[in-house]
Specification:
Elements: H1 2-34, E1 46-49, E2 62-64, H2 80-91, E3 96-102, H3 110-125, E4 129-137, H4 139-145, E5 150-159, H5 172-178, E6 181-187, H6 195-198, H7 204-229, H8 233-241, H9 248-253, E7 259-260, H10 263-274, E8 281-284, H11 285-295, E9 303-311, E10 313-315, E11 323-325, H12 326-338, E12 342-351, E13 353-355, H13 356-370, E14 375-384, H14 386-389, E15 396-399, E16 404-406, E17 410-416, H15 418-423, H16 448-473, H17 477-483, E18 488-490, H18 491-497, E19 502-503, H19 506-516, E20 522-527, E21 529-531, H20 534-542, H21 549-557, H22 559-573, E22 578-580
Parallel strand pairs: 1-3, 1-8, 2-21, 3-4, 4-5, 5-7, 9-12, 9-20, 10-11, 12-14, 14-15, 14-16, 15-19
Antiparallel strand pairs: 6-17, 13-22, 16-18
Helix pairs in contact: 1-20, 2-3, 2-11, 3-4, 12-13, 16-17, 21-22
Length: 588
């Protein structure tokens, strides 16, 4: 009897302890959410520290916590354009004396990096300093950091400057060996998202398109680095061929950097530049971005431009800040369309594409919106396949020179384990009432009739896709087919072939939207607003100690393996034909 009493008392004690922990957690959340003394203070003689190691999305997000009454619906200030706004604001902030970029390993795409670089150039042209230090520089780091007045490199560091490359994996032999394969149906000779499943080596068409867009991006990088470092583009190519940055000494001799120094010497250089007796204050870019964002006020007399962010793979469903779903997107478009203070819309797209059905539903909502208000598209790192589908009917399209776009093609994949099942002695039998009543089975080979039906669907979607593009771009369907076939283009090349109107970032798109809406002054309304629940808040304040299954997997597998698992998961979740970029583009 005493044993059961002790067990019961232990359970009661644990229950009370857990309840108290949650009560304390809620009190912390409540007071943090309602605190009025946590504003960022910027002191005089401040250096803005640009630390960009965390993944950067275009949009930090606005979140609706309406189901948690005491929690404010405040926006996040960690998006790409929050950072750019902060850099632009710092130009006229007398307390900010310069920018330090230190040990930076930028986690952003090429177009995002260019947008940041352009903002830094504007800051530098204002007369304020930019200095940079690295233990090593990757090529993307170097591209960004090359705007600095002075570049420092650790004496035992290195600079990775060798030209751009990409790698693809091919699984045909693997599938045949283990008896698990992907049944593939596609349209577009360049639509190589599925090439790895049907071949053991890269096709000439894929090699051609990859080589062309890599060269286009490399040419743009060299051109901009050439201006900043005063080294000719031809010389930069030669330095890349010679791996001239492979040691700090060689990088200095090649004038790729300005000084070899350790971090303490770098800090001493900043101190000497600002004055030996000057007390230097520092502020992180994300803190400063919050400072800037919290001080932005709207003018009730101003009309507005809505900026709607479409970031992530396109899925059929609601969507969130990481995935584009027709639910969230169409709600945002409808809100902007029906808001009388909104006079124009800029759709910022950063997507490799995805679900054909969701892309069509978003296209339709844009078409309805365009009849009421002008819609301008700004392309980020990617606006390819389905990402281009939702852009093609806009009134005007802007892209960065190194934006990846196009990829107008369609594919479908179905997993098949017939050979594996046969090897294991498994046989599946089907019975049905009609000729086509039996669904496709992963344990049976894809029949000719089934393949023909899938092919018919793929061809119908490709025909619709090219027609949508032709109508949106004022071209013939035949001319679109010639530049489609799943081929990928950079922003620069897309302008030449008519898929994009002008080169420029979000600022250019906003300017165009203001002009077409005849606005001299305006405020910006950022959308979508994402609905969040209590679990999201708890995770924010517990640092992940109350973990979701995804967070536990990431912790156990590591980031790289978790990302590989997520890629495999996405492949298995694809339903229906896909308008997706040929492959995940990771430029090295």
């Amino acid at each position: 009897m005493n044993f059961f009493k002790r067990v019961l008392s232990t359970i009661v004690g644990l229950t009370i302890f857990v309840a108290l922990c949650f009560l304390i957690l809620f009190l912390i959340i409540f007071f943090n959410a309602n605190a009025s003394d946590n504003l960022v203070v910027v002191k005089k003689n401040t250096v803005l520290e640009l630390n960009l190691n965390q993944p950067i999305e275009d949009y930090g997000g606005r979140f609706d916590y309406s189901n948690v009454p005491f929690y404010p619906n405040t926006p996040q200030y960690d998006g790409l354009f929050n950072i750019i706004d902060a850099i632009n604001y710092a130009i006229d902030d007398d307390k900010i004396k310069g920018i330090s970029i230190k040990n930076n390993t930028i986690s952003a795409g090429m177009a995002q990096t260019k947008a940041l670089r352009d903002a830094l150039i504007s800051f530098k042209e204002s007369g304020k300093f930019i200095v940079s230090y690295g233990d090593y520089y990757s090529q993307k780091d170097y591209y960004l950091n090359s705007v600095a007045d002075t570049m420092y490199l650790n004496p035992v560091g290195f600079l990775d400057f060798k030209g751009l490359s990409m790698e693809r994996m091919y699984y045909k032999d693997f599938q045949e060996k283990y008896g698990v394969k992907m049944e593939v149906v596609r349209h577009g000779k360049y639509k190589s998202a599925v090439e790895g499943y049907i071949s053991q080596e890269m096709s000439e068409a894929n090699r051609k398109q990859t080589s062309v867009f890599l060269q286009s991006i490399w040419d743009e990088m060299r051109k901009e680095i050439s201006v900043s470092r005063n080294i000719s583009t031809d010389q930069l190519n030669l330095l890349a061929d010679e791996l001239a940055g492979r040691t700090a000494k060689r990088a200095l001799e090649a004038k790729l950097i300005d000084k070899m120094a350790y971090e303490d010497e770098y800090e001493l250089g900043i101190q000497n530049a600002m004055g030996e007796h000057t007390l230097i204050n520092r502020i992180d870019i994300y803190e400063y971005a919050r400072h800037v964002g919290e001080r932005k006020t709207t003018n009730p007399s101003y009309e507005r431009i809505a900026v709607i962010y479409a970031q992530g793979q396109i899925i059929y469903g609601e969507g969130d800040e990481a995935m584009i779903g027709q639910g969230v997107m169409n709600k945002a478009l409808k809100e902007a369309r029906e808001d009388e203070t909104v006079k124009a819309i800029v759709l910022r797209i950063n997507s490799p594409g995805g679900s054909a059905m969701a892309s069509e539903l978003i296209w339709r909502e844009i078409e309805l919106t365009k009849q009421v208000k002008p819609v301008i598209v700004s392309m980020g790192n990617l606006a390819a396949s389905g990402g281009y589908y939702i852009a093609c009917n806009a009134d005007k399209i802007f892209a960065e020179p190194n934006t990846i776009t196009g990829s107008i093609g369609v594919f479908g994949t179905i997993p098949n384990m017939h050979q594996l099942a046969e090897n294991l002695g498994i046989n599946a039998e089907q019975v049905g009432t009609n000729k086509n009543s039996v669904d496709y089975s992963v344990f049976e080979p894809l029949s000719d009739e089934q393949r023909a039906l899938i092919k018919e669907g793929i061809e119908d979607i490709y025909d619709l896709f090219t027609q949508r593009v032709a109508d949106g771009r004022g071209m013939t369907q035949t001319s679109i087919d010639e530049i489609a076939q799943g081929r990928v283009w950079t922003g620069n090349d897309a302008v030449k072939i008519g898929l994009v109107d002008e080169i420029g970032g979000l600022d250019k798109a906003l300017q165009a939207a203001a002009e077409v809406a005849n606005l001299s002054e305006y405020d910006i309304l950022e959308l979508p607003v994402y609905e969040k629940d209590l679990q999201s808040i708890i995770n924010q304040y517990t640092g992940g100690y109350i973990q979701t299954k995804e967070e536990i997997l990431r912790e156990e597998l590591g980031d790289k393996n978790y990302e590989l698992l997520q890629k495999m998961k996405k492949l298995t979740q694809m339903k229906g034909p896909q308008l997706l970029l040929p492959y995940e583009i990771e430029i090295k």
